[in-house]
Specification:
single chain; about 800 residues; TIM Barrel; Rossmann fold; Immunoglobulin-like; 3 domains; 22 helices
Length: about 800
């Protein structure tokens, strides 16, 4: 009688033990364990096919079906999960002419959240291991999805010279994307824009490594925050690694030719800054560097990114760039070789879903790729899925998507647009205009065009969501001012200009605001390459306005169509004229600068651009944007960036070598005076602190912002360096008559160069500190000296 319970207990214990050995709770599902233990456990359970699937990032907009207001997974998604074991998706919520997703066929924010939930639910419940998806979205100036806030494009963001504001903007973008189920935001673009003919200049922060680096850090911190499990943050993907923004002839994705020293000193630092700020994803560029495509470059992806910088995230190809190793670069004979080259070089994930896939599996079978290499790449992706908490909480709450495009975010979009506006000219203080105006003409192809105002990588917009310049002025002035609107002409099309109507509107008005420039507005007639770039035809039967944006490289920088003819005709009326520029790159402004008394550059100012421009035109906001890129007088001057290497440029037969408007330039309705420059050098054992102090005073009767800029020249160095280099800057607000002392601190890292032995060092010798309001408007200057060489670890 005693033995029976013991025998039963023993039998139960044996049964429990047998069950546990057959089906234990997997370690990777234990959230209490360290991430590396969970990754290790999951990896050892996965088949090669499942591992390769985790690196596939197919195009996401094919993965859902919308039937009325209901959203469900598509047959294509079910097939991709079953056959490819996919672990990532890209642009699931994207809507634009390329994806053919409209306001009707695409997803509003609540439907987007329902769609991502459905995708996650299916993959978790219908796969062996239940690994959640990692969803990547385009987020450079707002989440590229229906119903989200559209901020100014990056060139405008760079014009703010205000990283704190851009970090705030990035936080808003991250929140909107995450509420809809996204985990990764593509951005920031950290390419230096030193070739304005290139089609993607608008996506960059300009030509300077320091400004780009500070903006990159701000975006990363805003996107990622301090807790990836917050429900309001996303992983930041840096683009495009590396030196993508200086293609020969301006050809997008074309060959670049930086030297090794220039690559390290100029093009890589913005990426290094962003990685040091914690960036957890990075995208390779289409181009090659010194004959090695970035997508298969072990020096970039292993030596620099991981060994030297300590990068802890995952790398991803640009769309189809693994296949491009065969089709474009011709360094691989077939796709199997291409997949092996890329992953062996340190590339983790494939944006396309077909670059690795069967080709990588075949490379594994043939011994071209080892299990260890595959496991390393997969671990980089899995680690972030664990760190975002996706195994515990893969879903979002659709009811919370009311926080997308909130009133707070719209107000922020207006702030960024205000701070981005650059006042290029204001002859005889024509601006600000008086609100007592009774008659105003608003003229031009960009005066009332929603999509011309928003830039590339923007979703379709609902009626009333975007405030154009015309609408902004109507909002500002109300019924007390009669506003006559005339389009006058298109950006490119010369067949339907109505210049006479515009001239008459100007004649009947006290002042004419002419809104011209460019456009990155895609339309549903445009043909697209498999990379998403536009397929440009030299001659088109139906001509869109688009002359900028991915794929739209230019041979000249002239205003296109009949815009110059329109402006000339309006000027001939003798009425005061203000030109507002809306565009994605520097254009030829020689005529505008010479003949128009007041000029504003707004770049692509986003959905609140019209209100922001009206605020500046009528003095409710005092402009203080500064150019993040030099404006050339001619394409014959290119390149014309300010921090070129010595010797000093000499003039041409036809013109001088200076830009029309230099880097850092911008006017204000206020005036500012600089004084009292002092420099204190405090050496340390392995560093130095150089304190540069000066005073800035608002000498006007109007409150305003000033952007104080510190440039440094190394007078004698072991290698040729730039004539000057921006080191520090600060945007400050000063009330009328107010004066402040600013102090910038420089350290050895700020003064370092790569010497002849390719070692980072701040070399002893004399330096010149130059303080002023632009790269050319230097107000104060003084020398300082380092007494010894200082080795630096960047």
């Amino acid at each position: 009688m005693v033995r029976t319970p013991l025998l039963l207990a023993g039998a139960c214990f044996a049964l429990v033990s047998l069950t546990a050995s057959i089906d234990p709770k997997p370690l990777y599902k234990n959230s209490a364990l360290p991430t590396h233990r969970r990754v290790q456990d999951l990896l050892q359970r996965m088949t090669p096919e499942e591992k390769v699937g985790q690196l596939a990032t197919p195009l996401g907009w094919f993965m859902y079906e919308k039937k009325g207001n209901e959203v469900q997974v598509s047959e294509q998604f079910i097939k991709a999960v079953a056959e490819q074991h996919i672990g990532l998706l890209w642009a699931t919520l994207r809507a634009d002419p390329w994806t053919q997703k409209t306001l009707t066929t695409g997803l509003n924010p609540q439907q987007a959240a329902e769609a991502t939930n459905a995708l996650q639910k299916y993959v978790i419940e219908h796969t062996r291991l239940g690994i959640p998806l990692l969803l990547s979205e385009e987020c450079p100036h707002g989440h590229m999805a229906i119903g989200t806030t559209v901020f100014p494009t990056a060139l405008g963001q760079g014009s703010t010279w205000n990283p704190a504001l851009i970090q705030q903007m990035a936080s808003a973008i991250a929140k909107e994307a995450r509420l809809q189920g996204a985990h990764v935001g593509y951005g920031p673009v950290l390419d230096l824009a030193r070739e304005p003919r290139w089609s993607r200049v608008e996506e960059t922060y300009g030509e300077d490594p320091v400004l780009n680096g500070q903006m990159g850090r701000a975006m990363v911190k805003g996107f990622q925050g301090t807790n990836l499990k917050s429900g309001a943050n996303i992983i930041s993907t840096l683009k495009h690694f590396a030196a993508y923004g200086v293609p020969e002839g301006g050809h997008n994705g074309g060959s670049v030719a930086p030297g090794v020293r220039e690559l390290h000193q100029v093009y890589l630092p913005p990426f290094r800054d962003a990685v040091q700020a914690g960036a957890l994803s990075i995208m390779t560029a289409y181009n090659s560097i010194d004959g090695i495509p970035c997508t298969a470059n072990p020096v970039l992806l292993k030596t620099i990114l991981r060994q030297q910088w300590g990068f802890k995230g995952f790398s991803v190809s640009d769309l189809n760039s693994i296949q491009g190793l065969v089709a474009n670069h011709h360094i691989a004979a077939n796709r199997v070789e291409a997949a092996a080259l890329a992953i062996n070089a340190g590339l983790d994930a494939d944006l396309s879903g077909t670059g690795f896939d069967k080709s990588l599996l075949q490379a594994l079978k043939e011994g071209k790729v080892s299990k260890a290499v595959l496991d390393t790449a997969v671990s980089h992706v899995l680690r972030l899925k664990f760190e975002m908490g996706l195994f515990e909480n893969p879903y979002v709450q659709p009811e919370k998507t009311s926080g997308v495009r909130s009133a707070e975010h719209i107000h922020l979009a207006r702030q960024v647009a205000q701070q981005a506006i650059v006042l290029l000219k204001n002859e005889n203080q024509l601006l600000p205009l008086k609100k007592s105006l009774k008659r105003m003409a608003v003229i031009g192809p960009n005066a009332d065009n929603v999509y011309n105002q928003l830039g590339d990588y923007t979703a379709p917009q609902a009626d009333g969501a975007v405030v154009t310049v015309l609408k902004g002025l109507q909002n500002k002035l109300g019924s007390g001012t009669q506003i006559r609107y005339a389009k006058g002409c298109s950006i490119r099309d010369t067949s339907s200009a109505q210049i006479a109507e515009a001239v008459e509107a100007a004649r009947q008005s006290e002042v004419a605001v002419v809104v011209i420039g460019g456009s990155s507005a895609r339309d549903f007639k445009t043909e697209y390459q498999n990379t998403g770039a536009a397929h440009v035809k030299a001659s088109e039967v139906s001509i869109s306005d688009m002359e900028s944006g991915e794929g739209y490289d230019r041979a000249s920088l002239d205003l296109m169509g009949r815009q110059l003819q329109l402006l000339e005709a309006v000027l001939k009326t003798g009425k005061p004229v203000v030109v507002v520029l809306i565009k994605g790159r520097p254009l030829n402004l020689n005529y505008v600068s010479a003949h128009v008394p007041a000029v504003l550059d707004a770049w692509y100012p986003g959905q609140e651009g019209g209100n922001a421009i009206a605020d500046v035109l009528f003095g409710d906001y005092n402009p203080a944007g500064r150019l993040p890129i030099s404006v050339p007088k001619s394409v014959g001057q290119l390149p014309v960036y300010y921090n070129y290497k010595t010797p000093v440029k000499h003039d041409y037969v036809e013109s001088d070598a200076k830009p029309l408007y230099p880097f850092g330039y911008g006017l204000s309705y206020s005036s500012f005076e600089y004084s009292s420059l002092t420099i204190a050098v405090a050496p340390a054992s392995r560093d130095v602190t150089v304190k540069v102090s000066f005073r800035v005073k608002n000498t006007s009767n109007r409150d305003g912002d000033e952007v104080a800029q510190l440039y440094v020249t190394d007078q004698v160095a072991s290698v040729v360096g730039p004539i000057k280099q921006l080191k520090k800057f600060e945007r400050i607000h000063l009330k009328a008559g107010e004066e402040k002392t600013l102090t910038f601190e420089l350290h050895a890292k700020d003064l370092m160069l790569l010497n002849q032995q390719m070692q980072w060092v701040a070399e002893k010798g004399k330096f010149t500190a130059q303080v002023g309001a632009s790269s050319e408007d230097i107000r104060l200057k003084e020398e300082f000296q380092l007494t010894q060489d200082i080795a630096v670890k960047p």
